[in-house]
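Example with several molecule types.
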Amino acid sequence: MKKINVAIFNEFFHEQNEERIAAIYPEGIHGAIANIVKNEPDVGDVITATVYNHTEVFTQECLDNIDVMFWWGHLKHGDVDDEIVRRVCRRVYEGMGLIVLHSGHASKVFQKLMGTPSGSLRWRESDDKCLVWVVSQGHPIAEGLGECFIVPAEETYGEQFSIPEPDELIFISWFEGGEVFRSGCTFRRGAGKIFYFQNGHESYPTYYQEEVKTVLKNAMRWVCPYEKKIVYDLGGGNAKPKI
Ligand code: ZN
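Resulting structure tokens for the full complex:
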């Protein structure tokens, strides 16, 4: 049985430099995301990388084996190696799924794939309640979520979000201050599927919330290369996807 091989990039700066963030994510945000997916029956390898070791971890051989990559970054986008950015983007075009989280909107990888230099948006930190509305009922990424779920406190993001028109809009979030934001968007680049998800500011325990875990697991399966899922669904086979 072929399984989904997952890579998680997290810059891992806040957790090592701010005690209050380390208290929320003692294993790092990458550790929290790994814990969400690693015991799923259809998940195989789960590897993690940070801004401190990504050039050693993300070899071409490693990336060739990855089906789905999560990307969380905030302050250290500029420290991500340009050759790694090129490799990751090429793998997306070849079919690797990519899930870009929260402030990853400003990562080199996301900007290169979107063609937008800034990915700019409105933001503030004021513990606003966030209502995440499902606007694509029936979409696999929204499975099991109902029509809306509440994140009790989250960094506020608001429009205008400078992205190309998404292929699909899965979630729109409303924040207590009145802002709205396209918080769940899909894109396709070449053979690869991309999902952007807004929630996950480092100072809130967002990645422990059940609905958020559901979103990440659903998204992992949705962005996973089609060939891998077909092989898995048939319960066997070992054909490598031909790109
Ligand atoms: Zn943030």
